[in-house]
Fold this sequence. Notes:
Blueprint lengths: L20 E4 L4 H12 L5 E5 L11 E5 L8 H4 L4 E4 L18 H18 L4 E5 L24 H14 L7 E6 L12 H10 L3 E4 L5 E2 L4 H13 L4 E5 L6 E2 H12 L5 E4 L1 H13 L7 H4 L11 H7 L7 H15 L7
Parallel strand pairs: 1-2, 1-4, 2-3, 4-5, 5-6, 6-9, 7-11
Antiparallel strand pairs: 8-10
Amino acid sequence: MGESQSVTPVIRPPIHYDSPVVVTGGTGMLGREVVRQLAEGGCPDIRVVDLLAPPGADRGAVRHQRIDLRHDDLTPVVAGAGTVLHLASCQYHSPLAPTTYRLPFFAVNVEGTRRVLEAARRAAVGAFVYVSTSMVYGVPRQIPIREDHPCRPLGPYGRSKLEAERLIAAPPPAGMRTAIVRPPPLFGPGRTGLITRLLDRILAGRPLTVIGGGKNLQELAAPEDCARLVLLAGQGGEQQAVYNCGPASVATMREWITALINEAGSRSVIWAAPPALAKPVFRLLELAHGSPIRREQYGIMDLDVVLDTSTARERLGWVPRWGTVDAALALFRWYRATRGHPPAG
């Protein structure tokens, strides 16, 4: 299933917020885009909360505060806010531990979410949006995956995000709307982690080993599209809602990797690793804390993973602009241009 490698021309007027907005995780890849769109829409007070908030980064309506959600006081930053957009998360590429086996998934994703939600409740915030992940679904039972698909995550990241979702799903106080957004992997400028190994191999012209050969459909979404859905979810919808996020078009894993190889003019070729052999090997390595990828990643790497985004489209009027190949190419072009010189913040 091929797709165009050019961004779909979609008219997207800025989204305006007229009351203060708190953005946790606001210096991350998605957070920066959310903040950019808020500023573009004329939000008068944008409060960026992040453990890695850079000093001297305040611009216009944007104010940064370096806060650790696990223990710092959130009351001052949330006071008087109309909306909280909770993006902060411990992910597999988070710099909070030397290996993925020591990352504080539950301390950040569950306890941190509980503390942000409690601060929002005390401040009588009108809307609370939580960015979760498609990894809460685990192995797909049906394609496309609807929001009511069973949630059986395969690893600690997905389990921690699902537990945080359950906090959000509890009855909110009167006057507060809550929304959960579940995106697939986000690819765009600023993305780091495991994907950089693949990009380095392509740039070096080395072979790429893919479980199953990459013939499965795999969605990658752009930060721009996910950020817009987050902002729309903060403004409208039901009292409690869950929205899948996805790209404008889907491609197979082989198709988007091939697009990167062609973009680089690389000699890389894709080798297929049989799932029946590769997955048990990764599982043994994981048990010994030696696998470069975790079960949440290798367990679905050869499967079709496509999200049904009709709820967001129909109820919020959300229309994604970027396709899977588009998002992968945007990441690759940024990485090639900045390799060895990552942008500040």
